[in-house]
Amino acid sequence: MSFETTVSVPTPSRRLNRRLAVVGSVLGFHVLAVWALQSGLLRRAVELVIPVEVMAELIEPPQPQVTPEPPAPAPPAPKPPPPKPRPAPPPRPLPVATPSPAPAPIQAAPPEPVVPAPPAPVMPAPPPAPPAPPAPAPVVTLPSSQADYLSNPKPAYPSLSKRMGEQGRVLVRAFVDTKGMPSRVEVARSSGFERLDKTAVDTVLRWRFVPGKRGGEPVAMWVEVPIVFELNFSN
Fold first, then answer.
1. Are strands 182-189 and 168-176 parallel, antiparallel or unpaired?
2. What is the rounded CA–CA span in Å between residue 8 and residue 226?
3. Largest separation between any pair of C-alpha atoms in the chain
4. 223 bridge partner residues
5. Residue-wise over 125-147: b if at least 16 C-beta within 10 A, else e?
6. Per-residue pLDDT tens for 132-149?
7. Where exactly are the structural domains of the chain?
């Protein structure tokens, strides 16, 4: 038994009819096979009938060709992880030295008592040397106007001061040089009357002095000279 199917034009209705015919033929074959199995004729039909292969060719419209995309580059192979460092072997335990038993202490003989030596006698410190005597101060001699050979005149009493009863004591201060000359004369203490003070200054300026000395050598220095103006009413 053979089945032949011819397809001329692939229209939708004919395609459907063809599929229905194929499905009907398959179903009819299965129904016939079940009946033959029940009736015992399937074995004889297999021996006598050569099965015919039913081929159905479906003609479909040509599909558009799709250009395949180039395959994506394969990702780089991962680098193998670096080898883990081997752990350092544990240090070997050092041998523990067994302490040797301490030797028994040797008791030394007690030391003999030391007798302290007698302290050395303390010598008293020598007394400090007496300080050197200070050098004698040079002898100072003030200028003098009392020498007889100087012939210094006495101050003249102003006549107006006599009539007015002016009197008093004038202290004159004179600077005498090494030659005995008064280079400067001034009033150190006034008598209270200008005429008497001026008369005393003029008088000392005309005097001569024995120059002052220090250590026997003439030295210029100041000297004070008192001049007294006193009225004598007994005359």
1. antiparallel
2. 184
3. 221
4. 174
5. eeeeeeeeeeeeeeeeeebebee
6. 778 788 888 999 988 778
7. 1-61, 140-229
